[in-house]
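Below is how a single chain appears once it has passed through the pipeline. First comes the sequence as given, then the structure the pipeline wrote out for it. We keep one example in the README because the format questions we get most often are answered faster by looking than by reading.
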Amino acid sequence: MLKTEVRNERTTHIDKMAIADMVRVMQDENINAAMSIEGALGSIEKAIDAISKRMAKGGRLFYVGCGTSGRLGVLDASECPPTYGVPHGLVVGIIAGGESAIRKAVEGAEDSREAGYSDISEYDISELDSVVGISVAGGAHYVIGAFDKAREVGALRISLSSNENTPIERAADIAIITDTGAEVVTGSTRMKAGSAHKMVLNMISTAVMVKLGHVYENMMINLRPSNIKLRDRMIRILREITELPYDECEKLLEENEFSLKKALKSIENK
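Resulting structure:
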């Protein structure tokens, strides 16, 4: 039986626990979820390096998954443009069942290998692209179908699961495994496994964006001023880097199309 499907001995009587005990055991397991990433750091490093090299040549990053796994991929992809100022098509989340599956479960969508192949084919992927297939159990046919297409064109295949020796691991060039073990509620992998995978996806996208030059020191310098909060953050970032007054930083950004990179370059050229 898959580790993520066995019963957790610590929570066999959770239905009779006091609330304080429930949240304590859940928090303990949250910590275990984070610690599960330790053993996967080497694989995560390899994935980031390989993705970055392809993306520097014009490649894209695709996340493919079903249910919670698919939603996590869509979430991470959707956060890249506002955070790093990259085009919406650079990091793409594909979920089995389509857009409606983000909010409402589409039962059985993960079982179609043909749909996974067809859905990713719509993006005309190439050997420069990278495909991260996310499946906690590691056997989602939809993800394997996407990998089939990726293999055909020579795209990089990276698997992310919480079980060892799974079909997606065997189909991948690089396998990332977070051994989160038994869930608090048996089989509810939106909990520990999902939390671990969210952290891994954050690490991948963040490190790739750093490698591509969208971060200066530890600050976002490719932001877009799409709202008041981000506009203010950009001014404060420029102020932090240059130590110039707030008003002067705002003026510099306005003179440079509200681009931090252009504003910094204009200062260097003075």
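The CA atoms of residues 264 and 270 lie 10 Å apart.

See the next section for the split statistics.
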